[in-house]
Amino acid sequence: MKAALLNDIIEWDVNNWSQALKIWQPAIDKLPRTAKVLAIGERNGGLTLWLALQGFTVLCTDRNGVTENAKMLHAKYGVTTNISYANLDIVNDTPSTAQYDLIIMKSVLGGLKEQYNKAESRTRVARQKAINNIYTMLQPGGVLLTADNLQGSYLLKTFRELKGKNRQWYYFNMQELKTLFIHFSRTDVYTFGIIPTRFSKPLLNRLAYALNKILKRFFPQGSSYISVTIASK
């Protein structure tokens, strides 16, 4: 995949987070292109673009609707006929029943709140409500693909504390994440990324990515800060 397209799909920390696409692809390949697909938390429309380019028709959603940048991005790649848009609050909206074959989201769960303007409503209850709603919306045998932020290494946790990032987002440990998907018939969780690839120099990002692939062999899952999940209903 060309770097420009990958950047448009993933947006940030591209080298590390793009591992999700490689992990998800076998599950995607099993689906007919007539599958009903829902993308959640799609502010700038990256995952919707990825799926539309593969021939899927996608409902692209965000809590307050996607940005105009998302629609411009989809037009740029000529996939607008494969995409429709809607507002969706996955925590509070009444879910449709057994409608979708595939639901996908990236870096969404850790930011969910029951009340949009109240940080204190970013709770375990809100996250579980969202997953329960997603479960309801999936057809029997349907699949949820999600990539989420883990706590990561001690060094990374310390950095977040110093920067106050823990007040802006929730970072999972592995057990918490697996508990969320308890009702699914099968859940596979993969991890990646000990060193973020967010340097200003592309060469440094490539070096960090290469080092991550080596470190993954020697460090426990909990040292990574990205989780990639495939959950089947």
What does this structure look like?
This protein is an alpha/beta fold. A 7-stranded mixed β-sheet has the order 3-2-1-4-5-7-6. It has a single domain (3-232), classed as Rossmann fold (3-Layer(aba) Sandwich). The chain has helices spanning 3-10, 14-17, 19-29, 46-53, 68-76, 124-137, 154-163, 174-180, 202-215; strands at residues 36-39, 57-62, 83-87, 100-106, 138-149, 186-192, 226-232. It is globular, with a radius of gyration of 17 Å. It has 9 helices and 7 strands. α6 links the parallel β4 and β5.
Backbone structural class: alpha/beta
User: Cα-atom Rg, whole angstroms?
Assistant: 17 Å
Residues in helix, %: 25-40%
Side by side, the strands of the main sheet go 3-2-1-4-5-7-6
Question: Regions with pLDDT < 50 over 5+ consecutive residues?
Answer: none
The count of strands amounts to 7
- How many domains? The number is 1
Strand content: 15-25%
Main pleated sheet: 7 strands, mixed
What order do the helices and strands follow? HHHEHEHEEHEHHEHE
CATH superfamily annotation: Vaccinia Virus protein VP39
Amino- and carboxy-terminal Cα gap = 30 Å
Short description:
The chain is α/β, with parallel strands linked by helices and 233 residues long. It has a single domain, classed as Vaccinia Virus protein VP39 (Rossmann fold). It is built from nine helices and seven strands, in the order αααβαβαββαβααβαβ.
